[in-house]
């Protein structure tokens, strides 16, 4: 429930986003504490508690400062309810301590000769026999900053990139859902185009079945009709000639000839001889 972590008031909005991972870390811690010690040394029995606590702090830190997935209210709520180590997070903000496993390993009072833990020495600066050495208190294999550092400083199940893994999975899932949505849209568009073509074909075929094929263009009919009229006229003229003989020449032409002759005589009159 939402009141699982808070004793005074429920968590703020947005806490549900990180709660599943926090619950998983709590269950992992419970299983590690209850498992038999076997042949472990006494110092090794406390390693799981420290490591899970570190992973939980790192997860909350990355979600707020690196990936911006939680609000300031959720972050402050986690610090107030001891879900994250505030002193350790304060060290992570300083150069050289970005991967610090614990504030215990940098306290000179906890080691002989006023030094720090072996895990604070970079791997490339260690002697061959100390390359695989771990801190006896935290079980850290090397949390020094710089090149050559270990990706998983504890070598355990969850590692130190819980937030990055969760964000990467969410991004991949969102991309997959987007691609599926685009594929569905393309399929719907293709189906709509196919349905439109089939409807047009169906209408054309149904018209042919009801009314027969479409008639030819009207221009061809007009030409054919004109040809038929000429043939009828020719046949009528030939039948008239057979019954009544050839037709007389046009009257208008003879009149025009007479008129032309008179006009010619008027223009060129014939001179008659004078009789004395």
Automatic annotation (TrEMBL):
Residues 173-276 are annotated as: Disordered. Keywords: Nucleus. It is found in: Nucleus. Residues 173-187, 263-276 have a biased composition (Basic and acidic residues). Residues 188-197 have a biased composition (Low complexity). It comes from the Eukaryota. It holds the Pfam family BUD31. GO terms for cellular component: spliceosomal complex. The keyword Ribonucleoprotein does not apply. GO terms for biological process: mRNA splicing, via spliceosome. InterPro entries: BUD31. Belongs to the BUD31 (G10) family. This is G10 protein. The lineage of its organism: Eukaryota, Sar, Stramenopiles, Ochrophyta, Bacillariophyta.
